[in-house]
């Protein structure tokens, strides 16, 4: 237990909301007073990173009001409280990111990306049956084609045109970018490249948006099936504009489970994946290998899979699907049960809390076991 008391109760959050709506309106008076005034301008990290006396005045006012109302709450703020660490305690976060937290801004981002990703789907449809130039990256199981690059280049160019100050993490040319608090688009241009190389139609384009290291938007296109999955934080999930939801299945034995046994090609995960697959054969209704992690996730969101799990892949494989399945009612975590981390390439997803507990317990039961292959 923590000193936060019943802070998780909606009534407590409603009180915080009412309080801050009133306070931030008063803070607006400071901005309105300063907008046309002569200001004392200083640079911080660069000539593009400025601060005025009004920034400090607004922050001082907000901090004083929060401390008066909630003296035990912590604060992270741009000008004078930027080095505070985020803990489990109630924490107010103030930023110069403008109104990016406003839902109208996220809705604009969603509408923009839904339109752009549909256009990117034309590239995949053009390439699915074409002769491709295939190259290997880390191994013969990790492939890339000219279409991966073309899709990524198109998406990045469109994002930079619309949002030039946003950051990008993408599989082919922007993979080493760090996730920061800035608005960041996380892109997998073609998830399921091996399937794409063979003309197998279960491939996807995956784009997520993170802000302050938290997923706020996910858009996934399955271009061959012409399916478009979208989710905006707090607004549920849709497929082709229709609401989707996870299943009500609560027993593992009745579940259709998605797993990726082909990932056992890697020595690090071989035994664990093979043992798990062997165990699942007698514990679930059926097992399906999707070949695209993000499609596995949206299939749970859509209710055609009950559970999906995968390990050792990349953040861009999972990010968009993670928020879509959460907004559809699903539960996600790291395979050991710890909270999902955007930059970690392993995930367990279940339709509901009960199924999530059961699949984690199953994984724990089979963890560390060894599958022996013997002659007859």
UniProtKB/TrEMBL annotation:
The keyword Metal-binding applies. CDD domains: IMPase. Pathway: Polyol metabolism; myo-inositol biosynthesis; myo-inositol from D-glucose 6-phosphate: step 2/2. Its cofactor is Mg(2+). Mg(2+) binds at residues 171, 188, 190-191, 317. Keywords: Hydrolase, Magnesium, Metal-binding. GO terms for biological process: inositol biosynthetic process; phosphatidylinositol phosphate biosynthetic process; signal transduction. Transmembrane segments: none annotated. It catalyses: a myo-inositol phosphate + H2O = myo-inositol + phosphate. InterPro entries: IMPase, Inositol_monoP_metal-BS, Inositol_monoPase_Li-sen, Inositol_monophosphatase-like, Inositol_monophosphatase_CS. GO terms for molecular function: inositol monophosphate 1-phosphatase activity; metal ion binding. Its EC number is 3.1.3.25. Belongs to the inositol monophosphatase superfamily. This is Inositol-1-monophosphatase. It comes from Lutzomyia longipalpis.
